Amino acid sequence: MRATLHLTGDPDADGLLSRDPMALLTGMLLDQQVAMEVAFAGPNKISDRLGGFDVHRIAESDPEEFAEVCARQPAVHRFPGSMAKRIQTLARYVVEYYDGDPERIWTEGEPDGREVLRRLKALPGYGDQKARIFLALLGKQLGVEPHGWREAAGAYGEPDARHSIADVVDGHTLEEVRASKKAAKARAKAGGSGAR
Q: Is residue 80 domain-resident?
């Protein structure tokens, strides 16, 4: 991962996401029931409070102490206690199955897009939609383009889409994605196609 992401509007938070794939996976995990940029700024808050973002340290932390780290104001998420558990569960999984190196999810064995999607969906806290969005983020912004990644990512992989965090490259595209999500929710509420 070498590209510079612009997901949060905070250069420090974006810098961490750009250089640390575990921080990026964690930001994606947090991306629910809060604004996208708040979710993706969460890993940097953890990093500031722990003196770095270390998957092994997070995995091995005392759960109550880690929950306090996440709850300290400004909190990492609007539900810091439950999210602290989810973050630790994700970190433990990455340590157990990938020796703490999350890049292996998309590099080990030269997987195609469907296999990367399968591996992402196996992560704790990642369902189908979250996995597809993350795959699209890898392909669109980080140059991780396993064969068939766009097809595996579905609508999120469309080149000019404005469906998710995968399409956010600046303040303007952030607003476009917000508008797209709002419209999708309105359609879903009215009985149309599902929200993205």
A: yes
